Amino acid sequence: MNISQVLKRTMNISQVLNYVTHVIFDMDGLLLDTERVYKYGISTVLKKYGCEYPDDVKAMVLGSQPPDMMKILFRETKLSESGKTKDEVYKEIVDTYTPLMSSAEWMPGALRLINHLHKHNIPFAIATSSAKESFELKTSRHKDTLKLFHHVVLGSADPEVKQGKPAPDVFLVAAKRFDEKPQPSKCLVFEDAPNGVLGAKAAGMSCVMVPDPTVPKHRTEAADLVLNSLEEFKPELYGLPPFEDK
C-alpha cells in the first residue's frame, strides 16, 4: 500500500492506521544516505573477484549484520571460488568504503521528522545492525542531532541482540530501553530494508518502509505503509501530531 492509496482511502485522515507512542528508526539508507557507500564497497570488491552485485542480492544484504551479509554474498555470487575467506573479503569491503563513510548526509525528510518528534516529546530511538566503530564513523558529523534520540541499539555490538534482522531482537531491545517500556504494538518502526521490515513485524510493531529503489516490489509487501521518501510521511496516520509546515 503506498501513501497515495492510504490518503485516498482515509479521506482527510479521518481514520488512523494505528495509535503509537514511540518510534524506532533504522539508520543506514533510512536516516543516513550510507547505502550508496556500502554498495560501492561491496561491488568494487566483488568486481575484483569477477563477481556481479545484482539488485536482488543487494536486497538480501540490506539491513543484515556482517556475518549474515558475508554468508549471502558467498552463497549468491562466485566469491566462494575466490580462494579467500569470508573474513578476508569482509575486511577488503570495509577498507574500501570506510574512507567515504564520514561523508554520509541525512536522507530527505529525516531531519524534519526527527525535529518534529522531539518538539512534541515523542520518544524515539535507533535500532541498527551497525557495529560501534562503523556507527561512530558515519555519524561523526551529526552528533548534535543524535543527542535528540533517547538511545541507540547497535545490533552487531549489543549482547542482548542475539540474532540480526530479520529476527525481532534489535527492535524488542530498543523498545524495552525506553523509560516507559511500551508494548510492541505501541511502537512504529521506520525501515528501508526487507529484512528490517520482517524483523519489525516479527516484533509485533507497525512498520513504515522507505525502500531502496533496487528493492523488488514484492519484497515491500510485509510493510504496513510504503513511501518513496520520509518527506511523504503523515504522522497523523499513526495518531501522532501532524506537521505544522504542511
UniProtKB/TrEMBL annotation:
It comes from the Eukaryota. Pfam families: Hydrolase. InterPro entries: HAD-like_sf, HAD-SF_hydro_IA, HAD_sf, PGP-like_dom2. Gene3D superfamilies: HAD superfamily/HAD-like, Putative phosphatase, domain 2. One of its GO terms (molecular function) is phosphatase activity. NCBIfam families: HAD-SF-IA-v3. This is Pseudouridine-5'-phosphatase-like. It comes from Diaphorina citri (Asian citrus psyllid). The gene is LOC103512259.
